[in-house]
User: Fold these one by one.
Assistant:
Number 1:
Amino acid sequence: MTDDLRFTVLGSASPYPRAGNPCSGYLVEGAGTRLWLDAGSGTLGALRAHIRLDELDGIWISHLHADHCSDLLTAYYGLLYADVELAAPVPLFGPPGIADRLAGFLTNGPRRSPVEDAFQVVEVRDHHRALVGGLALTSRAVAHGMPAFGVRVETEGGASLTYSGDTAPCEALTALADDCTVLLCEADYARTPQAGTEAVHHTPEQAGASAAVAGAQRLVVTHIGPSLDPEEAVTRAGTRYDGPAEYAAPGRTFGVTGQAGKPRP
């Protein structure tokens, strides 16, 4: 099995799309497998520039805020009622309750919309592990004030991508990212919240610190808040992290290569 892994940024805006930049979404490809990682507003159109919906091997959703999952609604219609030949429902990994949440939006009459006809729903939990084609996925519950998860995607050859989803700095994320090839970490906050206010995101400095604690080989900051300049966010992350740091610019593809190392946490 090849150790090649790459991800394409479909969008990295927060909390709503910007001109030319959808919300959170990534196409992860490796080991003959294609995974849609988060389906934020506007990412379906960007995804279709690369693959058809029926070419997906799976979808993984970090949490149920609209800027990470709303394009599942239009994907549902595309999978069932458009130009897609669906041999079987697409595996959909997401937080508990994701199927009923989708059905609540999609149902327009007395009969519940058949979400399961489009998606083979798997509810993730802390330390959840799954194989999607040639990719191994490990999910961890993270600190976002609601059910939310980060994920580590690995090839058999040792390439590893850890995606934070949305979270405040937490031990679960740094454990998940331990010695990973790339940490794709959100940096939404321009500044640390005031004392007494619950933190649910990273600042750029905290993204750098999480990468340093995890021993990540490379940091890519994403989910940049509207009051932050992306290049400033990269610079600020670099004050806490000595490795290479970059911005998840929409449309960019990042290669992820690595050697077999530590086992998944």
Number 2:
Amino acid sequence: MTFTLHRGDALSVLSTIANDSVDAVITDPPYNSGGRTSSERTARTARAKYTSGDATHDLANFPGENRDQRSYTRWLTELLTESYRATREGGVALVFTDWRQGPATSDALQMAGWTWHGQMAWIKPASRPRKGGFKQDCEYILWGVKGNLPMRDLYLPGHFIASQPRKNRVHITQKPMEVMQQLVQICRPGGTVLDPFTGSGTTGVAALREGRKFVGIELSDHYAQIAEQRLHRELTQDDFVLAGPEE
């Protein structure tokens, strides 16, 4: 299997990807959560939103976390529209979100042309408690199909239980490898997985391990470098392609 990693803005790079060239879009966009007011959205970093005050790691922030819900819906619709164009008939989109942005994400998915097929829950046992209320220990994965879903001999779970990695964690919102390796199986064997928000590259590593090709896009130079290193370790030098933002 091979991969290509683009460095640059997701929407700009997506416009250069050929029609009908990928089989699945699996992504965790910066979904601008945790801000009830304008000041909360703009004054707090991603690290402040998504890590506890006593966290011992010092992971880098990432951009794109300050949109209000209306602009987020418009922005995500544009991204998923470009992703739809780049996806083959029968291809699938999986988009991570949380309870705040679930309605916006389902709107964007459908406005972009995908036929919405539902959502899966990702339950995180190691999560912060909430005094006086219910623990927020769940995120969601909304999924849709371009056209009709191919009937394959494949049965995937409707929910996932796994905590974020603690050992060798390299990203604030890093997803568990065991979850991502199950999700990428929705892509046909030997097909191509596209992630417009590659982050530290977990989706790409999972795709390669499951026998799929990978196309990633990452805006942050810091995280693109980490993703490059992780993806490269999965392959030999001859298989590696690194694309610049102009591509």
Number 3:
Amino acid sequence: MGCRGPKSIIQVRNDLTFLDLTVQQIEHLNKKYSVNVPLVLMNSFNTDKDTEKIIRKYKGLQVEIYTFNQSCFPRISKESLHPIAHNCNIEENIESWYPPGHGDFYDSFKNSGLLQKFINSGRDYCFISNIDNLGATVDLNILNMLLSKDINSPEFVMEVTNKTKADVKGGTLIQYENKLRLLEIAQVPKEHLEEFKSVKKFKFFNTNNLWIKLSAIDKVLNEQSMNLEIIVNNKTLDNNLNIIQLETAVGAAMKSFNGGLGINVPRSRFLPVKKTSDLMLVMSNLYHMRNGTLSMSPLRMFPTTPLVKLGDKDFAKVKDFLSRFASIPDILELDHLTVSGDVTFGRNVSLKV
């Protein structure tokens, strides 16, 4: 969306950022139940310094915040298959390096010392989610299930939700060799892409909300039994250089754990902001906010969100998007909106289509 630095500091609601909302959620949880749930942020070399400065403003709140850095890998030239970095000085060659996807969580979390710290303090599970998923709050129903004595405590739980035509690229769960596995679109041969995108054949997709037993992470890493599929990500840099990034997905580790489960959760637990069209939805009167948590307005007549498409040329970047709205329109009765070209919106606009 054209942002520089951590995505977590984009303002998404009432001048509050993704990080502000997350901190509010956890502070409310800690106060309500007299507990001490910490917030742990995984940074990259691109966001670490900025994040450390930002989190200083939360001192004094009832939330402990920890950070750790994920790994740094060299980008590879697609033509030569050699690293494009001229030397190992990352600051001098920052465009030549990249963080290798959220699948790097496991090793980096352990190497930071935080995994052992939390195990030693008696904590059992971590809840992992993308900071830009505003629906990913701590769900006590799931936590109580994990801690229930009526079942064998699962080591790995993935939240999935019903697939729609807007989610055809999302990873899905499959049964293979008597274990649940995550299948990503990047792993699907071209001749089977339409089959993968089928809403009838694959009815659920991964929200990337995960619950994982800390002791199981430690065990799997110590046994060196984690085997994550490599995702080849092709990119073109500003200088038109074609490069390759080798990445992994955090959910792909599911097959390495015992008793992996998929839980079908309501769509409300998947509210990602990947584009400015998503930003428009969460900034609007479609949602109410309380204690950092967004919920759909009871005045909305339909259970689904409007399908909004904004032109990439004029709306893709946050700065350009904001400049085109004097105020975010009333969209309570909106079903579909497509905007292209040099369009601006005045104040007190109501959209009903």
Number 4:
Amino acid sequence: MEELLEVSGLRTEFVTDAGTIRAVDGISLSVRKGETLGIVGESGCGKSITSLSIMQLLPKRISRIAEGKISFEGRNMLDMSADEVRDIRGNRIAMIFQEPMTSLNPVFKIGRQISESARFHLKLGKKEAAERAVEMLRKVGIPRPEKIAQQYAHQLSGGMRQRVMIAMAMVCNPQLLIADEPTTALDVTIQAQILDLMRDLQQKEGMSILMITHDLGVVAEMCDRVVIMYAGQIVEETDVKTLYKKPLHPYTRGLLASLPQLAGENERLTSIPGQVPNPAQLPPGCRFAPRCPVKIDRCETVQPELLEVEPGHSCRCLLQQEGII
């Protein structure tokens, strides 16, 4: 399939009192037209920074994209002017943020917030934009959309606010939807409804989705391919079926082993010891080595490359590349 978004060698840095910290370190990925790509990892792995880098929404005072290329529909967004990026952001590429309550403006009515994007990008008049906002609220399954359009964010439930965020993202029919933890803090029933909604909209509109999550259940349900991130790097990439049948990286195996199983005896869940390293104090070798149960001495000194171990299946692990595991 034709690639819609291609990220190559992306390095994003932050300037702090402790020095320059590289939060995203040389990642490359692509999203094809009509597919859903999942980015998975623990908090602090660089997933959200990757999405904000693509959208160019990071604070310029303390951050910068040091290297890399972000191509959308064949054009490098890093070479575009600020006006050109604004024309794409919210129009051709839209984003659902992690926490709707902090993303929605508390002093403006829901309808106004949705219609602003339609007025800016679609050049609609005030009345037409307001009608478009109500239409989008209806499309995302919100009952009484005319009434909801006149309410404020604090008057809605978490599930309703998330639907509003989707309506806001979809108002201009984007080619790419970036969803950053779209079901966080929602109960299981509402999670399922939100995922069904996103899948239905994708099929109807033909858009691509970049799904950022720590929930492997969401990945299994929504994604075609998946990228596993750890400490700012991609450590594994493959199609979703292969990931569950044959995970290669010890980190991926640890994530899958931590999932509760319905079948079999009730056993204590497996956990990965330790935590993601501070990006200002990364280990000299493999970044997962301090937590890896199968590491060898060289893992602590040699930085592995991301290599294709099998067709369409890449892994950043010395043990895999040398056939030890």
